[in-house]
Amino acid sequence: xxxxAERLVATAxxxxxxxxxxxxxxxxxxxxxxxxxxxxxxxxLSGAVAQCLTTCRFLPKPAEIxxxxxxxxxxxxxLPDPYEGWSSILEAIRVGAARPIAGEAYxxxxxxxxxxxxLQAIHxxxxxxAFNIGGMPAISQSDNLAADxxxxxxxFRELVARQMGDELMLPAVREHVKALSQRLxxxxxxxxPEDVEK
Length: 198
Prior knowledge:
By secondary structure, this protein is mainly α. It folds into two domains: 4-76; 82-167, no CATH class. The protein has eleven helices and no strands. Helix 5 (82-94) packs across helix 9 (145-168). The longest helix has 24 residues, at 145-168.
């Protein structure tokens, strides 16, 4: 007898199974889909299935549905593409937000407000990508913005891939990683500093 989670996933998968009626869904396969998809919000899962209907040529694997779900979640959260992120960094630099506000008593309230607005418009991943390539002050003084843009795009994509990998991770896998990290941290603490230097 199917579990509640299996029924929920089977209901969400119904449009896919109707589209690919020759694909069997035996209990073992349904269990595998359920293992990968049951932690998703039902509305997000439904949206991911709909997205897969428009992009997949074959019955999507559970990982494809999960990736579609997190792609939709990123879009809903306003995750910019790398070039939008770069543009927001350049806009912040243009209005002077790369310089500190404190100590600049001559600034008008309007200028301070423009700087704050520009900074607030930058997605946190774009801020991290800019930091990873030297920060906004370094970018503002650069004489090769094309190279900086390429480095920013690479850094931004790497951060998005890392975040996506973290978010795609199943809760059970996340627990394994956490336990392993704690164990490795404890093992690192047991290594004496003089052993590391040798």
